[in-house]
Amino acid sequence: MSTTEVRPAHAGAEPVRRRRPELPSAVLGLGGLVVFAALLELLPRTGIVSADYFPPFSEMVRALVEAAGTDRFWAATAETVQAWGIGLGIALVAGIGLGLLIGSVELLRRFTASTIEFLRPVPSVALIPLAVLLLGLGLQSTLLLVVYASFWQILIQVVYGVQDVDPVARETARSYHLGRWARVRYLIWPTALPYVMTGVRLGAAVALILAVTAGLVGIGTGLGAEIALAQSSNAVPLVYGLVIFTGLLGVVVNLVARALERRTLAWHSSVRADVGG
Amino acid sequence: MTQPLLDVAGVQKTYTGSGRTVEAVRDLTFSVGDGELVCIVGPSGAGKTTLLKCIAGLLEPTAGTVTLAGARVDGPPEAMAVVFQEYGRSLYPWMTVEGNVELPLKQKKLDKARRRELVRDALEAVGLADVHSAYPWQLSGGMQQRVAIARAVAYEPKVLLMDEPFAAVDAQTRADLEDLIRSLWHKLGVTILFVTHDIDESVYLGQRVLVLSSSPTVIMEDLAIDLPDERTQLETRSSPRFAELRGHVYEQIQLAKHRKGDQHQRDEVTPARTAHGATVAAQHDS
């Protein structure tokens, strides 16, 4: 469905990388890609797999480049990105708002815990019939799926993040008379931020998956719909080309999320370089 | 002693857990005068932190009262600032040194200019005038604790509570910080209540040393430290009187380790200790 990588949830960003050992690993990574592309090229060309349903890599790329010259392609991309962006935005606002509330009120957290644990694992795609029934075909249905998928990722992270406030930091806030608002702004929110960023990264990835899926199953427009169309018109290289492109979108989303994480969490122990002991 | 600024009367704290209760603090009564520097020393697990939290209004005592300047403490009082042992957790890593020191002042509704002035003065007073835009975690442990002290100083409290603030720093840094506390105390005229497990530190710093028993805790002794006001690490610590006092407190702590609050009254006294205790008591009365 997608090549977007979903990483396991953890509080911080990736560990600090050193400058020197990074080079060989980057070269290796690039080498791996080249070998993979060469394999995709050679398998159909040598006849190990049938070129009818598995065209050589160069043809996939050519189909993609050709498509990229059309307005239709970019309109579809815009639609997918729009559904992704709006859906993720709604999930962010709702997830962060409710997460802060639920996380800070012990009673509310215990009251909602089992409900959340029940609703969270429901796969968003299982809601497709319901979405169509409720909202018909179109952007609204797509958004329902996108929001549902990314909302839980964000909510869970925020709820955990809010509870991670250090007892000493909390007592410091109390003894210096930080008011409710000041505590949220200067203590709770920064404490939860690493979790929020993880939630954003996971949510952004899964939102893209659902934005494409909605098009594939015919309730939305965009790249998913284009893939479905290419498939039904037997344009096999284009199908692969579009799949590669959605994968690239996923990579971009992930890179942006990680850059954002590094920027906002410069102070966090997973990003910073400690001096003191 | 002048009118007591801080009055601790019959404070008891019992923790109630699942099916069992632990009496951490049995019965503590003492008062601290305006401008005094009092050290509380006791064996580990003596409920020192519990006591300090009760005084700071962070923990409600099961019985007894804490009174600050005539008003009963039932939450963190405005006129008090606490320096915690765990500076790394007490300072907020997402804020700069300056931001950390300034944060409590924002709650005091002080205007920007006044806040800046207080922050600058406080950082200067702890010898960190040039690191204001650094983050706490970019500093050494000793410097981080200086930041926490600056934050407390900028808050302009009447009483400064310190909970084993130097327990996590190396010996060299510790000596410097002890001298910093003495000099801040002289300069600001603030009242300081300093909790420590380090006997030498309590004697070196304090005007008075309160010796706690093991848990459930009572005060075993209220000892006046008659060392000269001008103290230096080298001279004061090598003076015979310092050795006497620390020896005396040491004995008390040794006794305290094996003695709980409920045994305090009826414990037999060794002849050696009586002799020493008498000389100390005589000086204490004078």
Structure notes:
The complex is a heterodimer of chains A (277) and B (286). By secondary structure, chain A is mainly α. Chain A has one domain: MetI-like fold. Chain A has ten helices and no strands. In chain A, helix 5 (128-135) packs across helix 6. Chain A is globular, with a radius of gyration of 22 Å. Chain A starts with 18 loop residues before the first helix and ends in a 13-residue tail after the last helix. With 286 residues, chain B is an alpha/beta fold. Chain B has a domain at 4-79 and 157-203: P-loop containing nucleotide triphosphate hydrolases (Rossmann fold). Chain B has ten helices and ten strands. Chain B has helices at residues 48-56, 87-90, 97-107, 112-125, 141-154, 171-188, 199-205, 233-238, 240-258, 271-285; strands spanning 4-16, 21-33, 37-41, 63-68, 71-72, 80-83, 159-163, 191-196, 208-212, 217-224. Chain B has a ten-stranded mixed beta sheet with strand order 5-4-1-2-10-9-3-8-7-6, with helices on both faces. In chain B, helix 3 (97-107) crosses helix 4. Chain B is globular. The interface between A and B is medium-sized, with 24 and 34 residues.
Topology overview:
The complex is a heterodimer of chains A (about 280) and B (about 290).
Chain A (H helix, E strand, L loop, with lengths): L18 H27 L11 H12 L2 H34 L1 H14 L8 H8 L3 H25 L3 H9 L4 H37 L6 H10 L3 H29 L13
Helix pairs in contact in A: 2-10, 3-4, 3-6, 3-8, 3-9, 5-6, 6-8, 8-9, 8-10, 9-10
Chain B lengths: L3 E13 L4 E13 L3 E5 L6 H9 L6 E6 L2 E2 L7 E4 L3 H4 L6 H11 L4 H14 L15 H14 L4 E5 L7 H18 L2 E6 L2 H7 L2 E5 L4 E8 L8 H6 L1 H19 L12 H15 L1
Parallel strand pairs in B: 2-10, 3-8, 3-9, 6-7, 7-8
Antiparallel strand pairs in B: 1-2, 1-4, 4-5, 9-10
Helix pairs in contact in B: 3-4, 3-5, 4-5, 7-9
